[in-house]
Amino acid sequence: xxxxxxxxxxxxxxHQAGRxxxxxxxxRQILAAVPNQPDAWHRLGLLACHAGNPTxxxxxxxxxxxxxxxxxxxxxxxxxxxxxxxxxxxxLKNHRLAVKINRAWPDGHYALGLALARANxxxxxxxxxxxxxxxxxxxxxxxxxLGIVLARAGRMDEAADAFRQxxxxxxxxxxxxxxxxxxxxxxxxxxxxxxxxxxxxxLKPDHYQARAHLGIAYSRQGRTQESIECLEHAVELQPGSAxxxxxxxxxxxxxxxxxxxxxxxxxxxxxxxxxxxxISNYLLALNYDPAIEPDRLAQExxxxxxxxxxxxxxxxxxxNT
Length: 321
Description:
By secondary structure, this protein is mostly helical. It has helices spanning 4-16, 20-33, 38-50, 54-67, 72-84, 88-101, 106-118, 122-135, 140-152, 156-169, 174-186, 190-203, 208-220, 224-237, 242-254, 258-271, 276-286, 294-310.
C-alpha cells in the first residue's frame, strides 16, 4: 500500500502532466483516509484553479491553511485564487502574508509584484519586483516584469535598464526586446526602436506586438508603405483585434487612402463598438471623405458620442492616494 507521500507524488505527476481527473481522484482518496492532510487540500485547490474553478480553489486552500498556517506557498496560491475571482484586496493580503512568512522566497515576491501591478499599485509593485531581481539576479522574467511596471509608471530610463538586463540574461527573449522597443518608441528614438523591433521579429516572427509597433515606428519615420505592409501582417496575426485594425487604419489615413481607412476603422468597431481610439480615428477620417455631407458628419459624431456615454466607466485604479 502506498504511503501518503507516495500518493501525493503520484498525484502531482498526473497534475503536472495535465491529467487533472486522475490527480483529483488521488487527492480525494488521500483526504478520505487522512482528512487533515494539508498538502492534499492545497494541491486539490490548485487543481481546481487550473481547471477554472477558483471558488473551490479558495475553499480547499483555506482548509490547508487552517491545518498548517506556516506554509508561505499556501498563502501565495490562495492569493492567486482570489485574484482569479477579482477579489483584489483579499489576493494582496494573502500574497503579502506569503512574503512575510518567507522573506527570502523569490516566487512569493514575484507573485506579489504581479498582483500589485494588476491592481495598478505601481510604486509598491516596482519595489517588490526589484527585490525579486535581487533575490534571483539570473532570472530574466522578473526584470521584464519590473520594466513593464516602471514603464507604466513613466520611469522610462529605469524601464529600459530592466528590459536590457532581461535580454542580457536571455538573448532570445523576444518579449523583452519588444518591451524595450516600446520604451524607445515612447521616447521617439525611432531608429533604435526599429532596429530592436526587427531583432524581436527575428527571434519570433509571429510576435504581434513587435509587428504592430514596428508598423507604428515606420509610420512616424514617414515610411508609409512599409508601415502599411507591416500593419497588414499584424492584422493577419490578430484578425479579430480592434487594435490591429485601428493601427492599420491610421497608416492608411496618413497615406491618403481615405476610403480604405474608413472601411478598416468600421471593421475595428465591428469587433469592439466601444473602442474609443477607433471611434476617434473613424470620425477624424470622415472629415477627409469628400462625399460626406455636413449634416451626416455631425450625426455620426452624435451617434458615436452617445455610444461612448453609454459605455461602462473605466475601472482602472490609481497609484496615488
